[in-house]
C-alpha cells in the first residue's frame, strides 16, 4: 500500500508523525506490533516544509561516541547543508518510531523527495 504525504507548508513534526504511523502499520486493520507492515510512504515537496529561522538556527542534534568528551553537536543548518532536508526528515521519522529490530526495515520503506 502506497501512501503519499505532501509536505508543502506543513510542520516537520506533523509530517514525521503521520509517516511513522503509516510505516508502523497502525492505520491498517490487521496491525500487529511484531510485523513490519508493507506500507510505503513517499514524502513529496520536502524542501517546502515550514521551518522557522529560529528552529533552523537553534535546533541541534547530538551524537555520542561513548568516549569521554565524545559528544558531537550538529545544528539543523549544518545538517541540511550536509545531508539535505531528507536527512532532517528521516531523523525526525526515526525518532518517532520504537527502537527495535523492525525500525531499519520500516525506514527502508520511507522515500523523501525534494
Describe the fold and architecture.
With 114 residues, the protein is an alpha/beta fold. The protein has a domain at 2-50 and 84-112: Alpha-Beta Complex (Ribosomal Protein L13p, Chain: A), CATH 3.90.1180.10. The chain has four helices and five strands; from the N terminus they run βαβαββααβ. The strands form two sheets. A three-stranded parallel β-sheet has the order 1-2-5, with helices on one face. A two-stranded antiparallel sheet has the order 3-4. Strand 3 and strand 4 (71-75) form a beta hairpin. It is globular, with a radius of gyration of 15 Å. It starts with a strand and ends with a strand. The model has no long low-confidence stretch (mean pLDDT 96).
Question: How would you concisely characterize the structure shown here?
Answer:
Helix content is 39%, strand content 20%. The chain has 114 residues and is an alpha/beta fold.
Give me the strand/helix succession.
EHEHEEHHE
The number of distinct β-strands equals: 5
**In the CATH hierarchy, what is the superfamily of one domain?**
Ribosomal protein L13
Largest sheet: 3 strands, parallel
How far is the first residue's CA from the last residue's CA? 22 Å
CATH topology of one domain: Ribosomal Protein L13p, Chain: A
- What CATH architecture label of one domain applies? Alpha-Beta Complex
Low-confidence stretches: none
Strand content: 15-25%
Separate helix tally: 4
The overall pLDDT, averaged over residues, is 96
| Radius of gyration from the alpha-carbon trace, in angstroms | 15 Å
Strand order of the largest sheet: 1-2-5
Shape: globular
